[in-house]
């Protein structure tokens, strides 16, 4: 590829198709007609000597090369956008930036409704994209600029990252209403005798296991899931019990909320950002907007 003759607008096309997995939707995001988008994709494929995206029943799936390129491409686009805006600082009313935020499913439920209300009011042309990735990818995504912020109880993000506390989220237990052996109070003995759902990607599971280990006690975990809302749905339709952050239980239906009969600390929900973004005006605005929100 000769960068001197490469059309840099194709980077926006690549980013849009990768995000949307659909040429028509990507055309809308990029402000192009569908024929123009299809033509741009052909030019991209020729420039990269690779299909980049393969049509499947689930949408346009990226090739290995596309997966390799997306991080550097998004970082380059972010740097270019920030460079163009920096002479005048960040102007929320005029900006068309897309902020990408790493969030858990519990974080999405409490943070996004409040954040999007503030964004629509203060920066109506800004877009927010919530990302769900494994914990071991957070550092690389923030370093590369593919993600702007991460929000959660993320103790594993330390060196090279700034952080700010947003709110505390105490844990609770959920059981279905009219559960045959669980009711108000929920003593430790009932907790140990119950059958449990564990959320593999949550911190509650680790905290419960540590607390039980100190007591030399065990619980009976018969199901492991990856999302809090799935655990709540299972609990509402069975005699299982789950331990979740209180905010993850806000929209749960058909369950009773019970105290956790163990001494475990509340989740400390913070926003994290890489040092490369610390002085960036757009990132500063996003962080300040989040810090002003009322989460309690």
Question: What does this molecule look like?
Answer:
The protein has 3 domains: 1-67, Arc Repressor Mutant, subunit A; 89-170 and 266-296, Periplasmic binding protein-like II (D-Maltodextrin-Binding Protein, domain 2, 3-Layer(aba) Sandwich), CATH 3.40.190.10; 171-265, Periplasmic binding protein-like II (D-Maltodextrin-Binding Protein, domain 2), CATH 3.40.190.10. The mean pLDDT is 88. β1 (53-56) and β2 form a beta hairpin. The longest helix has 22 residues, at 64-85. The chain is an alpha/beta fold and 296 residues long. It has a 5-stranded mixed beta sheet with strand order 4-3-5-12-6. It has helices at residues 9-20, 23-30, 34-48, 64-85, 105-122, 138-144, 188-193, 204-214, 228-236, 281-292; strands at residues 53-56, 59-62, 98-103, 127-131, 149-152, 161-169, 171-176, 195-199, 220-225, 240-245, 255-258, 267-274. α1 crosses α4 (64-85). The protein starts with 8 loop residues before the first helix and ends with a helix. 41% of the residues lie in helices and 23% in strands.
What does the overall shape look like? elongated
Computed structural class? alpha/beta
Tally of separate domains: 3
Strand content: 15-25%
Radius of gyration: 22 Å
| Total count of helical runs of at least 4 residues | 10
Q: If you consult CATH, what is the topology of the largest domain?
A: D-Maltodextrin-Binding Protein, domain 2
